[in-house]
Amino acid sequence: MALLTLVYKCDAVHVYWHEQHQYYLADWQGVFRKGDELRAAYLKCVELARTRRGAPWLTDASKFTAIDPADTTWISEVFWPEFIKAGAKYQAAISPKKEIAKLSANRATENLAQSGFQTTVHATRAEAEAAIAEWRAKHERG
Q1: In the chain, where are the structural domains located?
Q2: Of 54, 44, 62, whose CA–CA distance to 22 is shortest?
Q3: Do 97 and 66 meet the contact criterion of CB atoms below 8 Å apart?
Q4: 76: DSSP letter
Q5: Interstrand relation of 13-18 and 4-9 (parallel, antiparallel or unpaired)
Q6: φ, ψ dihedrals at 92, nearest 5°
Q7: Which of 27, 45, 60, 114 has its CA 20 to 30 A from that of 13?
Q8: CB 90 within 8 A of CB 56
Q9: Is the per-residue pLDDT at 107 higher than 60?
Q10: What pLDDT sits at residue 15?
Q11: In Å, how far from its chain's centre is CA 18?
């Protein structure tokens, strides 16, 4: 049995469900998308979060490109609140490699601290997977 099951794919993101460890993997692609096309990818993540409320997310943004400022605002003001309302509680994120993409990502997530949503940032997928396992163990103990 494959550990990863593809649940959504578009030019901007490929989303998988990790069967064994029960988390979503959002593998953002290194293409520049903006407006409706980019927002549709983010909204699909909201939809998926609703299907498995509370499941952690491993967000691989290492190939991320810059985000249009209008989309950065939309991500901050619309996506994150909807994602959290859909049941998302935690993501282990792999930081973008490009500095301009890091700035975009930081602007899009700057208001998350007060939301109760938890994000940890990692250099590799293995580190992010370990963080998910640690988060899950801590939250399953109560």
Answers
A1: 4-141
A2: 54
A3: no
A4: I
A5: antiparallel
A6: -105, 115
A7: 114
A8: yes
A9: yes
A10: 97
A11: 14
Architecture of domain 4-141: 2-Layer Sandwich (3.30)
Give the chain's count of helices (H) and strands (E): 5, 6
φ, ψ for residue 27, nearest 5 deg: -100, 95
Tokens of 90: 């935690």
DSSP calls for 54-113: T--EEEE-TT-----HHHHHHIIIIIHHHHHHTT--EEEEEPPSSHHHHHHHHHHHTT-G
- Supply 60's token pair: 């691989």
Number of residues written out for the chain: 142
Residue 106: helix, strand or coil by DSSP?
A: helix
Would you state the pLDDT for residue 142? 57
Residue that the structure tokens 């979503």 belong to: 24
Tokens at residue 20, please? Answer: 């064994």
In the DSSP assignment, the letter for residue 3 is: S
The pLDDT tens digits of the residues spanning 54-63 come to: 999 999 999 9
